[in-house]
Amino acid sequence: MPEIEHAPEVTALFGKYELGRVVGCGAFAKVHYARNIQTGQGVAVKIINKKKLSGTGLTGNVKREITIMSRLHHPHIVRLHEVLATKTKIFVIMDFVRGGELFAKISKGRFSEDLSRRYFHQLISAVGYCHSRGIFHRDLKPENLLLDENGKLKVSDFGLSAVTDQIRPDGLLHTLCGTPAYVAPEILAKRGYDGAKVDVWSCGVVLFVLAAGYLPFNDQNLMVMYRKIYKGEFRCPRWISPDLRRFLSKLLDTNPETRITVEEMTRDPWFRKGYKEVKFHEEDYGSDHGHGVGIGCKGDGSEVLNLNAFDIISFSSGLDLSGLFGEFDGAERFVLSESPERIIEVAEEVGAAEGMGVRWKKECGVELEGLNGNFGIEIEVYRLTAEMAMVEVRRRGNDAAAFSDLWDVKLKPQLLSGGATTSYQHESEPESPVVSD
What domains are there in the chain, each with its CATH number? Predict the structure, then answer.
């Protein structure tokens, strides 16, 4: 295929993907075009350098993006195929969207009202789908909207997305995020905001840009621009129809309480013209593994954990991606139907009964150390839901027999008697032999 640039030092990634040219590059990640050797399908492979990522504070964004994309199966959303990892890199396999960014197309000139409406229909179909699943994008802009070879729009870049789990008791989100020109006035007010209403505002800015060819709120002075956004001061160009003007005023309403909703849009005269509801079967847009996303953490790609819909719901804070971001030298991990506090309490009781030293960790965890210092056990606990926790156990020292006696014979059975739901080993992973920086 013309996209592949063969190089003698590059072989198939995990024996499955033939890497081609670089199509995007950032501070800690590169995006390659690649071909699935088995199917011949073109895909995009985002290669994230863990070492470069670790000091940026963006690890949470990457985890969130993977988690959210794994839950979204819609014809106008970029599809996540699978996630693979080695000690130093994470490989996110996604749709390769050949048409590039909508931004590149609009930068050449404004669209007709009909074409703007067609893209807006597709955008709202994707956004409404996300909202129905409790997911809010929070960074909708033409740079994050891609076009496939058929000119169909695809929403991408969920790194700033929020899920309903992040909503505070007041029912609002409070994180400041988004791109300045597309940010809603209530975010600037710093009083909390409704994620769905914020996305609608950003969609309004996108629609204005498509039809007008420039931003509704813009100024070289950021504070002046923010003042315009806060007051909702914008002017429609003369070529925009009266119906579209009225519709834009509903989208760019500075009061989130009266701002139009996705459901109300479908009754608006301008929006309804040529509108057809997007009908699809979610399974047609799921991952290559059915309902789940493969998370492979072994260098040879042989050990893949498939998470189905039940797993995703159980892990309410998202997929367990911690294995992609750290090294687990033979650590064991499992999920218990128990509170983290009770798990730590049991570990302390067993350790004390065995005459071991007990040291609390900063996070929810504890270290048990043999009095002769020849071995120890480190336990970390992560809350998944109100009734479930994930436990990670590591051995310290070289006395494997003493460790096994404490862990396998005494402590683990006592923890599991409380009702483990799943258990697996996470072996240490070799370096990737296939990708160079």
Answer: 1-96+289-320 (3.30.200.20), 102-283 (1.10.510.10), 328-425 (3.30.310.80)
